[in-house]
Amino acid sequence: MTAKSTISVSERLIEKLDRKEATIGIVGMGYVGQPLALRYSQLGYKVIGFDVDQRRVDRLNSGKSDIEHISDEAIQAANAGGMETTADVSRSPEADALILCVPTPLNKYREPDLSYVINTIDSFLPFLRVGQVVSLESTTYPGTTEEELLPRIASRSLDVGEEIFLVYSPEREDPGNANFTTSTIPKVVGGHSPVCLEVGKALYGHAIDHVVPVSSTRVAEMTKLLENIHRAVNIGLVNEMKIVADRMGIDIFEVIDAAATKPFGFTAYYPGPGLGGHCIPIDPFYLTWKAREFGLHTRFIELSGEINRAMPEYVVSKVASALNQRRKSLMGSKVLVLGIAYKKNVDDMRESPAVEVMELLRNSGAEVAYSDPHVPVFPKMREHKFDLTSVELSPNTLASFDAVVLTTDHESFDYEMIRAEAQLIIDSRGVYRLTAANIVKA
């Protein structure tokens, strides 16, 4: 028997990944999938992107990006290197790796909605083959990979860990953050078995500068939740501190800046109009839901979630109070919302608290408009609907509104012009540290 005939399936796949002869399939070409696809393409791997949105497929294949911080040139370079995007899942056997980057939202009861993950794996099941690795990157509760993906893959009579390999590696994308890229953010990887882990390390080892292996998929899943719950809890704390400080006539931003001078034992978190993005507003509820299965009530995490969810209402109450002091009613007032992306300098609208602020204002009878250079037209969203386009800021435009609500602090805004021309500014981001008659901190 020759040495070649004794090589295992895993060794053959690892060798293929190491030689960059493997084809990488990225399932879900959104904010997580696209940067990952581009990274693998830059390294010389053949990349196939899978997406259910035919419009996105057509745009990407024509060399057009639908994400602001990813250039058309980057897509075109990847396409020239052989990347292609398709909605045809029957092409998945061409891929040696299938990396799942699909949404994991909450349902209306704030419970995990795994329908995207389950529907995706179910659609790919008939085409899974020996010698593939499946990696889930979507944020979810501990146990998802083993409880949902493993039995489905095993139902194909494929021996997981011997013939096909299963890993969980949570995404850590931070859109718009120029200090970190896909390759420089350390990657946590957990495998269903030790062999799966070795394959996972080979999958990500060339694309990511530093891979962090952990003992199981459950540890990797919990790691992602801890990262974002840590942030959510601390933002909840500082949001509550903001309300207390405001009632006492203290500027919470001045307090945070002063506290941040302590060189140990303190990390600065800043308050805002609520939590946004796909992870931080959602992840805590994945853990609290799963914890109930074990008879646990995660009071601390749930309390921070309640505080953060209440912040849009707090901002609107500050708008109403400020207008009332000027002998105006919120009903009938013209209100301009500045910045509707969930964070500054991006076009990402996922779970943006600014949208809830807009809805609360509209429900209170205000005439609502918005200005956001990153979002020229209000997008189609699952739970929110506005038929609006971004207002271009000018002195006359600003002066025409009864109130301007600053919800996302894009660097492209002319804050001096806004301060000089707006009748009333409700600042939920701490942009204005000065005291002025037309500025109200929220």
Task: Give a topology summary.
Blueprint: H1 9-18, E1 23-27, H2 33-42, E2 46-50, H3 54-61, H4 72-80, E3 84-86, E4 97-100, H5 115-124, E5 133-136, H6 144-154, E6 165-168, E7 187-191, H7 194-205, E8 211-214, H8 217-247, H9 252-259, H10 283-293, H11 299-325, E9 334-338, H12 353-363, E10 367-371, H13 395-399, E11 403-406, H14 415-421, E12 425-427, E13 439-441
Parallel strand pairs: 1-2, 1-4, 2-3, 4-5, 5-6, 7-8, 9-10, 9-11, 11-12, 12-13
Antiparallel strand pairs: 6-7
Helix pairs in contact: 1-7, 2-4, 8-10, 8-11, 11-12
Tell me the name of the CATH homologous superfamily of the largest domain. Answer: NAD(P)-binding Rossmann-like Domain
Could you state the order of secondary-structure elements as H and E? HEHEHHEEHEHEEHEHHHHEHEHEHEE
Strand numbers in spatial order across the main sheet: 3-2-1-4-5-6-7-8
**How many DSSP helices?**
14
Tell me the total number of β-strands. 13
Give Rg in angstroms: 24 Å
**What is the arithmetic mean of pLDDT?**
95
State the helicity in percent bands. Answer: 25-40%
The CA-CA distance between the termini, in Å, is: 75 Å
Instruction: Give the structural class.
Output: alpha/beta
The CATH class designation of the largest domain is Alpha Beta
The biggest sheet, with number of strands, parallel, antiparallel or mixed sense and barrel status, is: 8 strands, mixed
